[in-house]
Amino acid sequence: MDSKSKRRKITEDRISQLPHDIRVHILSYIPTVYSVRTTVLSKRWNNLWTFVPTLDLDQQDYSKEHGHRTRNSFDKFAKFVDGALSLHNSSTIRKFRLHIHTNSHYHLQETDFSRIRNWISTAMRYEVSELELSFSPNQGRGEEIELKLPRRVFSCKTLAVLKVDSNCITYPPTNPGCFPSLKFADIKATNRDNSSMRELFCNCPVLEELRIDANRYKNDTELSISAPELRTLRTSISVDISINAPKLENLVVYSSGFTKYILQNAKCLVKANIKHIGYIEKNLSPDLLNRATALLAGVSSVEYLHISGPNLVECSLPNFSNLKQLKLILFGCSYLEYLMELLKRSPKLEDLVLDIDIRSWYDEKYVEGYEPFKPPEIVPICVVSHLTTVSITHITGHDDQLDVVKYLLKYGQVLRNMTIFTCGALLFKTRHITEEKFQRKILKYHKSSNTCEVEVKYENKGVVSFNCSDCTSTILYVDRI
């Protein structure tokens, strides 16, 4: 084979030789602005992008080639979107993605909002199954321009996935029969006041997973959710919420304030993750305490529970009769008594994970009103008969923490494994103790379970076995997982 033939073979365009449908499928994975540029490759690519069942329109992708985001660049982007929609040849748009974010150099006008609304409405005529909108225009001082989502979105019989991230999108009142095929929704609303969302998910017959992030709502806003097929709900809101979801299995709550959750028919709830990310207050108002207590009572039937929040220690606890796994963030010594109270109320607990918030333990003994850990007079039933695994992370070596370790080993008759995560620098800083002294101290603790294996895992260490002649246990130095 001569050199010219070799070069011809090397430069052969095999992708262009692929069937039409395969090339269209390939283009569906890239933004539309790049898909359009393939028309210059060859005649076989000419207008191929118009058959792609995905329109991915991101102003940022367009701005990379047309300068910074200015009024002029937005106008050019708008013309590009107009052309993409008018030239589209596919009978369906499987996914319609529209991302628009302005900056402080220019503001969108009401005519721009109307134009964007028409884009969404036009796209919905193509039987969209996935709609993703990210729209946060920079608004001038005192401006409150709203973009009302077209009703065509709510009546679309093919829409299965809805993602919205916006500071100005509002929602018209919903009617029975809306979102007939919607199974997944992820709504991020940064509006300071968006009461239009109050009943957005009151009529969702097949919705299975819902995520709502709306922490900037006014306190007088109330949300209502009614979804007979809802399995997973993730919320980060600061307003009251009523939930009617008889098949709800997984509830995740992130909140900077204590939201009032009214759970109806939550008999199928299996997992709950409650994380309060607000600041620490020593004395909460009765109303806030009642809200937090009601939330815990609403998830009392779960099998898996994750609790994190410095204020939750003040709540009255319900009985967790089905609880098998508990993960608890320990905010200082006061949470140890809270832990014991949880153990008392969880008779079937098998797996306990304790994650120590290091910052709250440094000066714990100097906090006014500090009292050392006091073990309960009656050993919780779960410790004696069900608890098999215990994991403690970020342990600082405080006596109170070690007293809990000692207590669980002493009374854990069916305990099979206890894993402790720490590091030498942290131990020395907080308790002036070396790794060797720490591991020897742990090994000397009495164990009720002869089959219990204790592991201490240090950071930045290799795997080393340590045998103590006075003990029956083995501690492993391993890299932290």
Automatic annotation (TrEMBL):
Name under which the protein is recorded: Putative F-box domain, FBD domain, leucine-rich repeat domain, L domain-containing protein
Organism in which the protein naturally occurs: Rosa chinensis
Pfam families linked to this entry: F-box (PF00646), FBD (PF08387), LRR_At5g56370 (PF24758)
Residue ranges constituting the FBD domain according to the UniProt record: 381-457
Gene3D superfamilies linked to this entry: 1.20.1280.50, Ribonuclease Inhibitor
Domain of life: Eukaryota
